[in-house]
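The freezer alarm interrupted the setup, so I double-checked each line after restarting. Inputs confirmed:
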Amino acid sequence: MKALVIDDSAIIRSMVKDMLSEIGFEVNFASDGSEALPLLQDTSSHFDIVLLDWNMPEMNGPDLLKALGEDMVHQQVVVMMTTETKLEYIMEAMRLGAKEYIMKPFTADILKEKISIAAGF
Amino acid sequence: MIDNDIFSYFARLIFERCGIHYPPENYFQLKSRLQTLQENMGLNSFVELHQAFVKGPEPQIIDFLIDLATNNETSFFRDHKPFEALVTMVNESVGRHPHLPLRILSAACSTGQELYSIIMTILEKCPAALQSGFQIVALDIKQSVIDHAKAGVYTNLEVQRGLPIQYLIKYFHKTEDEKWKIDSEFLKYVRFQRFNLLKDEFRFEPFDIVFCRNVLIYQKLENKVKIVEKIHRAMGEDGFLCLGSSENLLGISEHFVPRRPNNCTIYQKQSAFSQVG
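Predicted 3D structure, all chains:
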């Protein structure tokens, strides 16, 4: 199974990599939306799960989802992973096609559980 | 006094108060819980902790010890499958008496995640029960967790354990101190009561569905038998009993028939007719 982790924090990328590797994921990275956009538009590659931060330089998480467009977002299992915890942010992410929402800080068991709920594993 | 004598003293005290049995091979668990208690009381050793209890501690200290001993690990929709099986249990129960409200027991409701998961499941997936009406009796031995359940307020971490985000959006609102509070409408379905499953007698029975998960696992066999017999008496004909994923009724009761809806083992009370047969 393949995961794409889009986050500008190297610490978060490394922590999430460890958590996902432990449950058998091959983990790919992008440090913001503009770096992730071509990876997600490339139809030859497929990710089983996309973990997406909200606040990033260049292109943030919601802007990435808008740039991808509704159809392409719905082909992915996108889980927001962010420090934004207000209800309106959560609703905005869901409106843009995210399947789940993780509020930082989180634990490995929460990450696994949310991935399982979002992807139906 | 050596540590093992102290652990044995606290194991006996915990057993007398709430029936939870810590055999010597589990003293390492007891040790870490007593460590927490000792630190909270500002004491320097288990010997001092023991002396404080022998002198007679404040009642809230005993409550705190019971809190620690019973380990309130819980999450929303814990283990998933029981809540899928709940839909079957609810639909069959409503079918048996369509005009009477459904009675559900959450025998150890802890901080409320199980009982609110039951309500969310019924609201989302059991329209027939909404027509007949339903009532949940939520019990726990500890007042502190009942107060938590009644308040229905959870941290970011707590609402992320098992709760799908759509349910968070639909049934919770954000509080001023950045926590999440369950829809206050949920409380109209629930009666809370502090209750000792070994000592107190049920009211509000008969129950159609009983959730008694991860309670028996901590008990000695004689107490398991006692609790299951008490629950059996409080259940209606053909009522359903749902236990924790690592619990079963082998050697405890023969008055239930195991069933496996949605790949989850539950137990159905044998009707008077089939018991005679």
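Quick read of the result. The first helix of chain B runs from residue 3 to 18.
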